[in-house]
Structures are given as structure tokens and as C-alpha cells.
């Protein structure tokens, strides 16, 4: 399951091929991965490597702008820019969030000026739409794996995904190991589809209650997404699927990544699935409206920290 690499284990995660014509076999492999580590690689996802590279390049163009320019897009209503060290644990990263690009709230998105970054919005909208399409296919396979109708997770309304671009700056000298790029966390939504520029740093802790915690590197596979289960899917499945703790350590090297958070429709009620509970294993969490759950998690993590949170 793991390789040794400079004293830190490297995880060998399963690779899921989204183009495989054996839907049931693919759904079974995803099911297994979600139960084992809650992490897997996704290939043949339909997003060309050129588009991934272009989006990473545009991300770099944005984060290279003067702070004053970036602050014009300061985070509000879950969209926009969060500066370095602004989240709860002082993580050394800056981010920008992009919400749904074509629903009735798309006007809330904050875009850099066309005069400064002419093709930025177009690239991000295209990337958003393509990753969402891959995400929808994945979610329908998960529904299949859980013996649900394939549209189960979108029956109340369309998913509400958020794209978050992240930049971890390069740093010189000896780094304080206690300060991280992204502190240990689990993601809030259904699933996350992540790509990085290949610079290492992402680590996973498979047993969150084990002390001391054991962290393993997630190796980069060019062109593949790293997919992980989020807390709402863990709640839906009564912990059958694992929303695994992960973090990004600082290596001194500059790093870019793009996380696509698949969130349920805000009015969807996340409630233990019948197939995942029994008398011996009652629901561990009360039902909750997805929108309320997310709002609380954002608030607790102080995301944005710009005083603009609604
Ligand atoms: O930057 C990364 O590789 C991971 C980011 C992440 O875990 C997140 O944004 O939730
Ligand atoms: Fe994460």
C-alpha cells in the first residue's frame, strides 16, 4: 500500500479510469477506494492537459499581481481572494474562490480586470465547466455504487461546486515545521477534484485518531486528478466512505494547485442513506441542509477573514 521515500511513506492510491466502459466495475473500484482511504487518482477525465496547464498558468498570473490589485477581489459571499495567512491557523497560502459560473448567483463571482488578464475569466469558466462534467460522472458512479438512482445526488437540484485556486509561495531558509501550507483538514463537501503543478507537499493521514499521527505523501501523477471524499459524503454514508485528513507541508518550493469542491445543491438534506445504517449501526449524524452545513464550516474556519462574510 505504501513506498518508503526519505523516511516518509508514499501512498499507492488506486487509479480510476473515467472512460472505462465497464461502469459497474468502475463503480465497484470507486466504492472500495472510498471505503479504504477516501482518496484515489482519476484519469481519462476529459480535461485536456493543455487546459489544466493553461489554468495553472493563469492562476500564476493572478497571484503575481500586486496585493492591492488582488485585494480589489477580496473574499465575500464565498467568492474572491483570501491573502496569505488569513485563515484560522495562519496557513502560508493565498487563494481565490470561484463559484458556479452560470447559475443565478454567477454575478457574485469576482473576476480580475480584462485589461490586466484578458483570457483569465474565459479559461476559468471553461475549466470549471469541464471539471464539473467529470465530477457529475463521478457522482453518478458513486450513486450506482451505493445502489441509488444515478441522479440521486442531484435530484433536489444541481450541485453547487466551488473552484479554489491556491498559491503556496516559495520560501528561503529554515522553515518552522509547525506552520503549514494547508493545515490538517478534511474537505466539507461531497468530493474534491484536485490538480497540482507537480511540486510535492500534499500528505494524507489515514488514521486520524492514531497518535502520533502518521502522514504519507501523495505522489503526483501528471494529468491525473487526486480525488477525495468530503465530510458531507461521509455523513451521507454514515462513515462507510472516509473523509480523510490531509494537509500541505511547506518544502520551500513555490507551489500551485486547484481544488474543485463538489458541493450538493444548497437545499439538499444530507441524511444517512438507508443502506448505510441499521439497528446495530444507527445514524451518527443528524440530517442537515447542505447550505447550512457549509456556511457553518466556512465560519468556523474563518475563511475569507475580510469582515465581509454574510
Ligand atoms: O493544495 C493542495 O494540494 C491541497 C489543497 C486542499 O486540500 C484544499 O484546498 O482543500
Ligand atoms: Fe482539502
TrEMBL record:
Domain Fe2OG dioxygenase: from-to ranges: 157-264
Domain of life of the organism encoding this protein: Eukaryota
Q: Name one GO molecular function term.
A: dioxygenase activity
Q: Does the keyword Metal-binding apply?
A: yes
Coiled-coil annotated residue ranges, if any: none
Which keywords does UniProt give here?
Iron, Metal-binding, Oxidoreductase
Q: Which residues form the signal peptide?
A: none
Q: Which family does it belong to?
A: Belongs to the iron/ascorbate-dependent oxidoreductase family.
Report what the protein is called.
Fe2OG dioxygenase domain-containing protein
Amino acid at each position: 500500500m505504501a513506498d518508503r521515500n526519505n523516511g516518509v511513506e508514499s501512498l499507492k492510491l488506486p487509479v480510476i479510469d473515467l472512460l472505462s466502459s465497464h461502469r459497474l466495475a468502475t463503480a465497484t473500484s470507486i466504492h472500495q477506494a472510498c471505503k479504504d482511504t477516501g482518496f484515489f487518482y482519476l484519469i481519462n477525465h476529459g480535461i485536456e492537459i493543455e487546459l489544466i496547464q493553461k489554468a495553472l498558468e493563469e492562476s500564476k498570473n493572478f497571484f503575481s499581481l500586486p496585493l492591492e490589485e488582488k485585494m480589489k477581489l477580496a473574499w465575500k459571499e464565498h467568492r474572491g481572494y483570501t491573502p496569505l495567512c488569513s485563515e484560522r491557523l495562519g496557513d502560508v497560502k493565498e487563494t481565490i474562490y470561484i463559484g458556479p459560473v452560470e447559475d443565478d448567483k454567477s454575478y457574485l463571482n469576482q473576476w480580475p480586470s480584462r485589461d490586466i488578464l484578458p483570457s483569465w475569466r474565459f479559461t476559468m469558466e471553461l475549466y470549471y465547466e469541464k471539471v464539473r462534467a467529470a465530477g457529475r460522472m463521478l457522482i453518478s458512479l458513486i450513486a450506482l455504487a451505493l445502489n441509488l438512482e444515478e441522479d440521486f445526488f442531484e435530484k433536489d437540484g444541481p450541485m453547487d461546486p466551488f473552484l479554489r485556486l491556491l498559491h503556496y509561495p516559495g520560501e528561503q531558509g529554515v522553515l518552522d515545521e509547525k506552520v503549514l501550507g494547508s493545515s490538517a483538514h478534511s474537505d466539507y463537501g461531497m468530493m474534491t477534484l484536485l490538480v497540482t503543478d507537480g511540486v510535492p507537499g500534499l500528505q494524507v493521514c489515514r488514521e486520524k485518531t492514531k497518535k502520533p499521527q502518521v502522514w504519507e505523501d501523495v505522489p503526483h501523477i501528471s494529468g491525473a486528478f487526486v480525488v477525495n471524499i468530503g465530510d458531507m459524503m461521509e455523513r451521507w454514508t454514515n462513515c462507510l466512505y472516509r473523509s480523510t485528513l490531509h494537509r500541505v507541508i511547506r518544502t520551500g518550493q513555490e507551489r500551485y494547485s486547484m481544488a474543485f469542491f463538489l458541493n450538493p445543491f444548497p437545499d439538499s438534506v444530507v441524511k444517512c442513506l438507508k443502506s448505510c445504517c441499521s439497528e446495530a449501526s444507527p445514524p451518527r449524524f443528524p440530517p442537515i441542509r447542505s447550505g447550512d452545513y457549509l456556511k457553518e464550516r466556512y465560519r468556523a474556519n474563518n475563511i475569507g477573514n475580510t469582515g465581509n462574510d454574510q
